């Protein structure tokens, strides 16, 4: 599985960005995708996750109502829409993937595949 994230950039507080992650692999059965982020000097933290073909999406509390994760199955892409951005959202955002679903989806160690990251900078 390979993941290629894109879409990061510099935006003012209150603005929006759309992150995309192209997913390549031989099988998408029992597959899940997620997004994590890491701010400078801080630990990597969970942002959102969902099953590839599931209806439920999970979000970290601080992004609920502002970020939306979706999938375009035909294009094999996961998208993270970031709205109402705040300076504290500044981080490198990583898309992740795994086979199977874990109730510990918020734990970085449960995700086997990671993209290279894309930087989001929110100015105040």
Describe the structure.
It is a single chain. The protein has 124 residues and is mainly β. It is 0% helix and 52% strand. It has no helices and 11 strands. The strands form 2 sheets. Strands 2, 4, 5, 6, 9, 10 and 11 form a 7-stranded mixed sheet that branches. Strands 1-3-8-7 form a 4-stranded antiparallel sheet, with no helix packed on it. Strand 7 (67-72) and strand 8 form a beta hairpin. It is globular. The mean pLDDT is 96.
Strand-residue fraction?
over 45%
Give the class from helix and strand content and strand pairing: mainly beta
Inertia-based shape? globular
What percent of the residues sit in helical stretches (DSSP H or I)? under 10%
Which value, in Å, is the CA radius of gyration? Answer: 13 Å
Helix tally? 0
Overall mean pLDDT stands at 96
Please outline the major beta sheet.
7 strands, mixed
- What is the quaternary state of this protein? single chain
Low-confidence stretches: none
Distance, first to last CA: 37 Å
N-to-C series of helices and strands: EEEEEEEEEEE
What is the number of strand segments?
11
Give the SSE layout:
Blueprint: E1 2-6, E2 9-12, E3 17-24, E4 31-38, E5 45-51, E6 57-59, E7 67-72, E8 77-82, E9 91-99, E10 113-114, E11 118-123
Parallel strand pairs: 2-11
Antiparallel strand pairs: 1-3, 3-8, 4-5, 4-9, 5-6, 7-8, 9-10, 9-11
Question: Which key features would you list for this structure?
Answer:
7-stranded mixed beta sheet; single chain; globular; 4-stranded antiparallel beta sheet; 124 residues; mainly beta
């Amino acid at each position: 599985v390979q993941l290629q994230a894109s879409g990061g950039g510099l935006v003012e507080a209150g603005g929006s960005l759309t992150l995309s992650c192209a997913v390549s692999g031989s099988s998408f059965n029992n597959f899940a995708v997620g997004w994590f982020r890491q701010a400078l000097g801080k630990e990597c933290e969970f942002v959102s996750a969902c099953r590839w073909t599931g209806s439920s999406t999970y979000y970290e509390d601080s992004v609920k109502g502002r970020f939306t994760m979706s999938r375009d199955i035909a294009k094999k892409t996961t998208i993270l829409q970031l709205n109402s951005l705040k300076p504290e959202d500044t981080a490198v955002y990583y898309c992740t993937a795994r086979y199977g679903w874990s109730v510990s989806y918020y734990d970085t160690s449960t995700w086997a595949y990671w993209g290279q990251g894309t930087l989001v900078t929110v100015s105040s």
